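Comment thread on ticket #2218

A.B. wrote:
> Attaching the input chain for the structure job we discussed in standup.
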Amino acid sequence: MNLQEIFRNIIDNSHLHARFLNTLSLMENTGARKISASEHKTQVSYLILKHASEEARHAFYLKKQIQKVADLADFPTYENPYLVAPFASYTYLHSLDIQLCRYLKSTLKLSGNDLKYAAYLLVTYAIEVRADELYPIYQDALDEAKSKVNVKSIIVEEEGHLAEMISQLKSFSEQWEMHAEKACNIERSLFEQWINALNSELNNLPTNQ
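C.D. wrote:
> Ran it. Output below, let me know if you need it in another format.
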């Protein structure tokens, strides 16, 4: 089942769609928290603040979208019952961060704040590449279903994020493309695990849902 089909099946089930929106909100919030956690105590740039605040806003926006398909009060937290594929969704960004930190330690011998900053650049870049693919496909499925849910504002901001990350990576290393490719390869494997988990959950839905 491809991504478009997965989204169609999710959108077709209001309760599942609400859980999916909550899951996307979780993942955006995790990104915001990771960006903030990578910040230096004093050397915090405008772009880092911008990215952290926009990811947090995306998390809030997606959470708010739930009320277009279900009762928002039924999805109060990011605990497992309120998510789709909770384990894969929880570990997706954490695993990407951990694996890229290992890569940066071994290839560039980075540590401390330098490691945190480099990991922020590569993790964020890989996630923005993915977001530039995922959100437009999701929006197409929403439009097809004539859903009231809309992620067009997120798509516009994520496109801007990607351009900003490329600019920062060029300043970070002359070999930025090699490091960025490595980040995307790691992310691709983790994304496939997430998609497989979504598929599994769809296949195991009770027939009365």
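A.B. wrote:
> Thanks. Noting for the ticket: Helices lie at 3-11, 14-37, 46-65, 86-108, 112-144, 152-172, 176-203.
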